[in-house]
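Retro notes
What went well: the complex prediction finally ran end to end.
Inputs used:
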Amino acid sequence: MSDTKNKDAIPGQLDTLKRFLNTVDLDGGSDELDSPQALGRWLADVGLLDPASEVSRYDAARAVEVREAFRDVIFANTCHTEPDAAALATLSAAGSAARYRVSFHPHEGPQLEACAEGVEGALARLVAIMAQAMLDGSWGRFKACRRDGCRWAFFDWTKNQSGVWCSMAACGNREKARRYQARKRAGGSGSTTV
Ligand SMILES: [Zn+2]
């Protein structure tokens, strides 16, 4: 389940957000953010948090809530629908304590930076990445797999942004086979049209 083929083309910050979303394997049930210590380690490893920061149980629950709100929003990219209002409200709230500032650099566009510290600041930095990607147009390619139970975050490099699976081998063919079997059970023709 990866899109390593075009990995180099992924904007660096958006790749961090993708890694954050993929800290949970919904299929396998493992979650890299399943404790305050694990969350602190993960955020420090990607440079979003000072390793000496305190991380509470509340922070860990909040991080998972924010992660799943991101997933809801990028799933709307997969389906080409409006993002869920409640998920957007969760992300707005995560950014509200950030004390954002805009900074300018010679060879890049304006950067939105969160000044808040701790986990609150780290989550706000992830929200800022989303805002920046929406502004630079890369956001629409950031999607969650359409297969129920997968929802893996991936970048869709298809020309017309029509990709819906994290990987055709892992999920596309599996979902097609499942539908084929369901149709067969229902007495349908068994056509493989999706
Ligand atoms: Zn998938």
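What we learned: The chain has a mean pLDDT of 88.
What to try next: split runs per interface for comparison.
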